[in-house]
Amino acid sequence: MIKERGINPEFVITNEQSLRRLFHAVTPLAIQKCQDSLDGHAQEFIRRSPFICIGTQNSDGKADVSPRGDPVGFVKILDEHTLAIPDRPGNNRLDSLVNILDNPSVGLLFIIPGFDDTLRVNGQASLVNDPDILESMRVDDRIPKLAIVVKVSEVFLHCAKAFRRSHLWNPDHFQDRRAMPSLSKIILDQTTGAPGDDAEMRKIDDALEVEYKKTMY
């Protein structure tokens, strides 16, 4: 158990002026690189990306970041100001979707395996079930129930420092998933309790893999 530690209020940053005193001034290029539409480079990056994170927040300030992944180019470019993201089957909590209904402002982070730089896109989202848009997102003969359509307001490439610091794509730094319990066991430990019998736990893990195959789309 980690002992709770309080934070001395003396060291809490409470205003932008105090914050900016800790850092060098922003460079002109860092400001100029921000675009309000998807140019050719941004579109090419999006077409290559199989994975994004989408950040949302409701009107009370409750935030959520959700991963979204699919075959390369799954986010559709409708025009230079508009993107459409398929909503695939999940756990039906609908956290991101409910947040969007409450507060349409979203932030997207596009990731390409092997690329250290990322693409950031901000904008206003809506939930759409237009059949023509959904049909373009068909995979394995299944279409999503809806799409998240984002009207783009801000686009810029983000530098490679975070990915290089983390060695995210370096196999020498990959960790063995078996070093931690399976997803099923962790959730059961946190809720109703996992079975003590290893064989029974393996059956539960195997059932989850079967469920993945049946409900991916």
UniProtKB/TrEMBL annotation:
Short name of any one Pfam family annotated for the protein: PNPOx_N
Highest taxon, organism lineage: Bacteria
Membrane-traversing stretches: none
Domain Pyridoxamine 5'-phosphate oxidase N-terminal: 39-159
Name recorded for this polypeptide: Pyridoxamine 5'-phosphate oxidase
